[in-house]
Amino acid sequence: VQLQASGGGLVQAGGSLRLSCAVSASRFSITAMGWYRQAPGKQRELVAAITSGGSTNYGDSVKGRFTISRDNAKNTVYLQMNSLKVEDTATYYCNKPYGVPWGSWGQGTLVTVSS
Fold first, then answer.
1. What is the pLDDT of residues 44-97, one digit of tens each?
2. Which residues contact 2 (CB under 8 A, 6 or more apart)?
3. What Å distances lie between residue 4 and 12, 38, 42, 87, 106, CA to CA?
């Protein structure tokens, strides 16, 4: 499985970004997906998840600001990030949120939020 995240960049605090992750998995439409992030010196954390049926869950730190969605026709999962904070600075990845993740995480996409 190949995971290709994109859409990151440099944004000022309070701004927005929309991340995309293209997934090569053949059973994407029936697979729950998640967005993770890893800040320098910190462990990777799951910030948002979406089931195959469209139910969503968010980490407390992003709830109300981030929205995860998916387009099964395009094998793509999205993360709309609004009201960005400096502490959202991290490399963002997509992968399965439950059970064993796919082994290859891809390079992720870097989000840098300036004050």
1. 999 999 999 999 999 999 999 999 999 999 999 999 999 999 999 999 999 999
2. 22, 23, 24, 104, 106
3. 24, 16, 22, 23, 6
